[in-house]
Amino acid sequence: MKILHLTLKKKWFDMIRSGIKKEEYREIKPYWRKRLLHSKFDAIHFRNGYGRAVPSFTIELTGLYRSLGIVKWGAPEGEEVFILRLGEIITSHSSGTEHPVR
């Protein structure tokens, strides 16, 4: 399984983990174009922070496309972005311990 690793601010991390936010956005810039379009990812590992024992989870990546995102979910208004469509949480980690989701 190929996993994309991303770090999120707490607001977006909590919204995705709770199931409210169903997609994540990235700007259409050369960095993201190269990173997202030249590899096929199966899942995303989201972290909330940069420390060793920070909350994190791995979630299915069910699609990738370009479009306008939802502004209240963090997309820039009127600007096309890469949309990472999210599925089910595979594993959840809190303070360095892993918890499989059943």
Provide keyphrases for this structure.
102 residues, alpha+beta, 2 helices
Description of the molecule:
With 102 residues, the chain is α+β, with helices and mostly antiparallel strands. The chain has one domain: Archaeosine Trna-guanine Transglycosylase, Chain: A, domain 4. It is built from 2 helices and 6 strands; from the N terminus they run E-H-E-H-E-E-E-E. Strands 1, 2, 3, 4, 5 and 6 form a 6-stranded mixed β-sheet that branches. The longest helix has 9 residues, at 10-18. The mean pLDDT is 91.
Brief write-up:
The protein contains two helices and six strands. The protein is an alpha+beta fold.
Which series of helices and strands comes N to C? EHEHEEEE
CATH architecture: Roll
* Structural Rg: 13 Å
Tell me the major beta sheet: 6 strands, mixed
The helix content, as a percent range, equals 10-25%
> Which class best fits the helix and strand makeup?
alpha+beta
CATH superfamily: Hypothetical protein
Instruction: Work out the helix count.
Output: 2
Reading off the top of the CATH hierarchy, the class is best stated as Mainly Beta
Low-confidence stretches: none
Span between N and C termini? 18 Å
Percent range for β-strand residues: over 45%
CATH topology category name: Archaeosine Trna-guanine Transglycosylase, Chain: A, domain 4
The total tally of domains equals 1
Q: Care to count the β-strands?
A: 6
Mean pLDDT: 91
Shape call: globular
